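[job 4471] stage=fold_predict status=RUNNING
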Amino acid sequence: MRARRRRPGPARHGRDRRAEVILPEPGRERFTGDAPSAAVVGGGIAGLAAATALAERGVHVTLYEQGESLGGRLAGWPVRLADGSGVTMSRGFHAFFRQYYNLRDLLRRADPGLGMLTPLPDYPLRHRNGMADSFARVPRTPPWSALGFVALSPAFGWRDLAAMNPREALPLLDVRVPEVYERFDGVSAADFLHRINFPEAAHHLAFEVFSRSFFADPRELSAAELLLMFHIYFLGSSEGLLFDVPREPFPQALWEPLGDCLRQLGAEVRTGTAVHRVRAAAGGDLTVETEGAADRHQAVVLALDTRGLRHVVGASEKLGDESWRADIAALRTAPPFLVSRLWLDRPARADRAGFLGTSGFDGLDNISVLDRWEGESARWAARTGGSVVELHAYAVDEGAEPKEVQRRMLDRLHEVYPETANAGTVDSRHEWHADCPVFSVGGYRRRPPVRTPHPRVTLAGDLVRTGLPVALMERAATSGFLAANALLAGWGIRGQVLRTVPRAGRSRALRALAGLAARR
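[job 4471] inference complete, writing structure tokens
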């Protein structure tokens, strides 16, 4: 989609009046007669966004998902606990930030009021040295958000601010997308923070927590992604750093209702169906090959994770040109991560937060007490007198022994929440995965964009370049809508309106100051 930019105005579904509205190419509202057929390969956030935008405009959509349920890396599945309880397991906690405009627009298809989400009152952080931070009282409107963080944070004082290298730090004031990648993709996040003399305590307490949410060590993460994150959550948006979480497990709250919406739009949803390859057919059509079947479509959206995309493109010998195929083959995944969920026979202390970001605890990145906000866990806890606790460890050393990591994370839980040391474990589940994209230093240039060399094949997913200030789940949703819009524009149909935080710094004075420093 060659997006047309509209002047910033009130965001229909957010408080930030400067949120940017991006209009699709002009065209008809939808197909009214014969409509083309499109395959969407992958039923995660990106695939659901693409399938929804296409189906709403009359395209005959077939959604192929390898797993037995929708949701991709946010899917859930039923398990039976040792006490006989039937519960839902997943790959763990995800924060639905208020800046995630396009993801929220997708979820509104099934729940216009977003009643399936509930806010957490704070986003607390804790370091092993005893230092703690909170975002509950930090102002949401820039630049007061950043100044408020400095004023309220024990890890970042005014002396620390004065000691920072102002010339090197000025790019934080005017992050421009996609220019930020041209300037800072060749630098690691850790090196950038060292270059600006960012306070060590704040580095570990705040920015390390954020950077590891990209499933990467800050020494390996591109500084451009770190700067983008700073822009999205601090100086680019007035939505703030508090977030919402689903009231029930992902399938029940999000994906089953969205799947029902797709079916009501006439889409065919095929779970448990892996796509092996895509071949060019006569007349410009494309054949999508699954086990024992080959379906013909006029367009394809590949909304796959890194390994899935590499596999399908590698098996589709004539799809794309040599350079594009080489870039797909070069994509890598982030190091392994662990999600441990524990069903304990006694409650966590009443004042424990629903979510706590942690740093300095031997690789433990956060702790969630699910019965504070998820209905299914709360009902189990009320029935048994126990608690449901979840631990995340990102960017685990690939040579580490899994059971040793699981034991160490449990020990750190007992250190952070001592009352859990005396609790018995009714049951536990440990999920190990290594399938998230890595945004490594210097890797942006080879990350594929939404459009591909084939005019009827587009890409979607959080690994895809969008040219917009989005990240994580919001990047997945945005890329899915962009992938659909690119196809719809080719058919003369108007696509999805998008919203993002501004693509440049909000303050004219700060932008001028940052520009002056860049020219010196």
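[job 4471] summary: Residues 155 and 200 are 8 Å apart (CA to CA).
[job 4471] exit 0
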